[in-house]
């Protein structure tokens, strides 16, 4: 798992860890490198699937990461992704932000629309994550794990 050489100075400049091999990431997380490899190569067994009821009576399928994958993702979130700049308009999945932060700028609007994007997360492939232009971690292994 090598990072693009052109991103190393950027990662260091913004204070993010730099990994040139899976073993370096595994060492930082305190796991065996094979655990990361397993989750990037075998996504079917890395997630538990179940359904939950939606407000309209239909059900939503959830694919939740298993405990060890969730721990890896949490480490990457706290130690890498949280260090990246976020849009000032983003409110979802950001620490200390809630649905209230999303609603307040629109409180005086006469009309608003609320939508639910069907199958949003399953529609995001590793390739799409990899192609993000301002994402400094260009390793396919990183993209596969997040």
Question: What does it look like?
Answer:
- By secondary structure, this protein is an alpha+beta fold.
- It has one domain (5-88, 125-145).
- It is 36% helix and 10% strand.
- The chain has 7 helices and 2 strands; from the N terminus they run H-H-H-E-E-H-H-H-H.
- It has helices at 8-13, 22-29, 33-41, 67-79, 99-103, 126-130, 140-145, and strands at residues 47-53, 59-65.
- The longest helix is centred in the middle third of the chain and has 13 residues, at 67-79.
- It is globular, with a radius of gyration of 18 Å.
- The protein starts with 7 loop residues before the first helix and ends with a helix.
Could you say which overall geometry the principal axes of the C-alpha atoms support? Answer: globular
Average pLDDT rating: 79
Q: Low-confidence spans: pLDDT under 50, at least 5 residues? A: none
Largest sheet: 2 strands, antiparallel
**Number of beta-strand segments:** 2
Q: Structural class of the helices, strands and pairings?
A: alpha+beta
Count of separate structural domains: 1
**Proportion in β-strands:** 5-15%
